[in-house]
Amino acid sequence: MAEIKPFRGILYNREKIDIAKVITPPYDVISPSMQNRFYQRDEHNIIRLILGKAENNNTSKSNRYARARVLLDRWMKKKFLVKDGKPAIYIYTQEYLYKGKKRTRLGFIALMKIEDPKESGILPHEYTLDKPKADRLNLIVKTKANLSPIFSLFQDKKNQINKLLKHFIKSKDPLFTIEADGVIHKFWRMNNKYAINSIKKYMRDKKIFIADGHHRYEVALAYRNKMRRNLKSFKKPMDYVMMYFSNLSERGSLTILSTHRVVKNINQFDEKKIKLKLRKYFYIKNLTKQEDLLECLEKTEKKKRVFGMYMGKKRFYLLTSKETRPKFDVTVLHDLIINEILGVKNRASSIKYIRNEEDAIRLIDKGDYKIAFFLRPTRVHQMKAVAEKGQMMPQKSTYFYPKLLTGLVINKF
Description:
Conserved hypothetical protein from pyrococcus furiosus pfu- 392566-001, domain 2
């Protein structure tokens, strides 16, 4: 199902560049303040390629996508970025603490042949939005490159691939080690043909679950299809996309965190009427402390649908669904509460996705948003079940932690 191959990656030249100063998280978690900080950190920071600043004199020839292409070509010409001499697969580990315990996620970066999810074993699980896809398509059209890997999962119950990867890195020093936000990232180049062929063989029968990067995968597919229609411009490498692969069967290697929602633009906002409508579907428990709410969320039986809710004035509510049919928390929240009960029409302009509970509460107290909803993390087996059934969850249903760094390796067509 998964056709993968090694590639000649483009890496920062460690003789000229301090790698720690030029990497960033994925583009879609970078705030404007973070963007400014990365701009100031180093003139060769990858931010200038993946999320360049808009300027007042933008034209089709001088917008941020065109500037990304110019910078990419310039950095390669001046050897700030260097293309590897041999095709390789790149091994990538992330060591981090979760609830006081050390965890390590092991994976590898390679190229994968692009397939239509409707006709293959490439399985997404989240809906996408048009605006981010248009943004990423503009970038790939101009740069003709994958500037960051899509994050995917596969199931290997025998752990054959990870055993091979661990054997390789056991005797090799990493190309570099970076500590960022409490996570230790290590990166190796593997160009051993026997090992690569073994991984290719093991991956052939694997379903691929897209964990993070749904927009970029759809864009890669659209770009490939567009270029195929123009045979003069089409190149065989456009059939492939750069992807990070990690085994979801390895115990303790995957962590999904919660992503909460704050909502505005609610149709006829009235706190009493909203709670009255909610009581038709939910048992409502009043709480006075954020800590009590989060503790209740964590201790509630996994099979129950439950949310936290905050509408200001230091009053918190635990909503437990009266419905017993198996549905996911995030799906019930969006379809029943946000769409039907609150009457929110435009999700893109009305919902903000928040990782930190305090930030969500602060936005409500300031009056910028009306209601905050707190969610438990989606579990890996839930994501897998949705994807295998060909179903979709709302956007930002999963937050895999830690995020992959951007700037470790680039794939150019």
